[in-house]
C-alpha cells in the first residue's frame, strides 16, 4: 500500500526554495519514506502538540522541517510546510 502525496500552496512555495539546493536530496528521501508509511516507528517523526495537534514533523536538516498531516481514509500525506520552522 502506498500513500499519495499532496502539497498545500505554502509547501509548493517552499519546494521552489528546495529545488536545486543542497536540501533537495534529503527532501526527496523523506517523501519516498512518507509514500511507503508516514507513521512507521523508524520514520523519526515528531508528533506536534496543540495548537497544531494532528500534525507531524520530520527534519530535513537542523534548520528546516517538513510538516505534514496524514489522512488515513484517503491514504494521503498532506504537506503543509517544508522550510524553516522558525519563521
TrEMBL record:
One GO term (biological process): RNA catabolic process
Keyword terms, alphabetized: Endonuclease, Hydrolase, Nuclease, Toxin-antitoxin system
SUPFAM superfamilies: RelE-like
NCBIfam families given in the database record: toxin_Txe_YoeB (TIGR02116)
Example GO molecular function: hydrolase activity
Domain of life: Bacteria
Alphabetized InterPro entries for the sequence: RelE/ParE_toxin_dom_sf, YoeB_toxin
UniProt keyword annotation of Transcription present: no
Protein name per its UniProtKB record: Endoribonuclease YoeB
PANTHER family in alphabetical order: TOXIN YOEB
Family: Belongs to the YoeB family.
Amino acid at each position: 500500500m502506498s500513500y499519495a502525496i499532496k502539497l498545500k500552496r505554502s509547501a509548493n512555495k517552499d519546494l521552489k526554495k528546495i529545488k536545486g539546493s543542497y536540501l533537495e536530496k534529503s527532501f526527496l528521501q523523506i517523501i519516498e519514506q512518507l509514500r511507503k508509511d508516514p507513521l512507521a516507528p523508524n520514520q523519526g517523526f515528531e508528533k506536534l502538540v496543540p495548537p497544531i495537534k494532528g500534525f507531524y514533523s520530520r527534519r530535513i536538516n537542523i534548520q528546516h522541517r517538513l510538516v505534514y498531516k496524514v489522512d488515513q481514509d484517503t491514504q494521503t500525506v498532506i504537506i503543509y510546510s517544508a522550510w524553516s520552522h522558525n519563521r
